[in-house]
Amino acid sequence: MTQPHIDQLASGLLAQIAAFADAVDGADWDTPVPTCPEWPLRVLVGHLGQAPRWAAGIVRGGSPDGIPDPHEAVPPQNWRAWLLAGASELVEAVRAIGPGTPVWTLTGPGPASFWLRQAAHDTSVHAVDAALLAGVPYALEPDLAADAVTQCLELLSSPVAETLKPAVAALRGAGSIGLRPSEGAIEGWVITRTQTGVSWRRGPGRADVTVTGAVEDLLLVLMRRLPPQCVAIDGDGQLFDHWLAHSAL
């Protein structure tokens, strides 16, 4: 499967930011978000307003002067419109410069679409955070959920992964993990731990532990939003537990 088209990423981002806003409408912003540890809802709203605007500035050629602190964000009274406007600003910035135009990214020079892809998947996961907090349903597009898994593995296998998150160094070692979507049309992944870091590939293959479930559930377990009991685990469960404990970015 190739990376989703910019139109799919854009529509996914805008749909999920709207879903987030619907889920938290009327909620107490001081409420802790259980699946987003140490962040009250106020900070999560701040993050989803800040992050796409920061990314849009990078896409337009701005200097990445450090990741903004969501604790410092001050959402306006019309916070819903603020969230939607931030997401739209990023979409417009990527379209204006062209999705393939090289820009600064977290892992080195990359296409401007990197930031739209990052925002779409980050927002999707946080929309689930909001839905779980509010006790309302959520839904992720299977193709976008699959691409979110791929993006996660791309980041974890990047040469700069351990710089971004030192705990990732604990993933060095031995053993393999197979991720098998129950949707037949979606390819799985095989992750291999080596002494120099993480490698992975798409497609079938034997693994020391195989994790099977709907691709949405696979993503949310990998993102530690759902417990491992929500998927089927066959093989070395301790290996998968270790992965979950050290793969947060």
From TrEMBL:
<protein>
    <submittedName>
        <fullName>Maleylpyruvate isomerase family mycothiol-dependent enzyme</fullName>
    </submittedName>
</protein>
<keyword id="KW-0413">Isomerase</keyword>
<dbReference type="InterPro" id="IPR024344">
    <property type="entry name" value="MDMPI_metal-binding"/>
</dbReference>
<dbReference type="GO" id="GO:0016853">
    <property type="term" value="F:isomerase activity"/>
</dbReference>
<dbReference type="InterPro" id="IPR017517">
    <property type="entry name" value="Maleyloyr_isom"/>
</dbReference>
<dbReference type="InterPro" id="IPR034660">
    <property type="entry name" value="DinB/YfiT-like"/>
</dbReference>
<feature type="domain" description="Mycothiol-dependent maleylpyruvate isomerase metal-binding">
    <location>
        <begin position="14"/>
        <end position="131"/>
    </location>
</feature>
<dbReference type="Pfam" id="PF11716">
    <property type="entry name" value="MDMPI_N"/>
</dbReference>
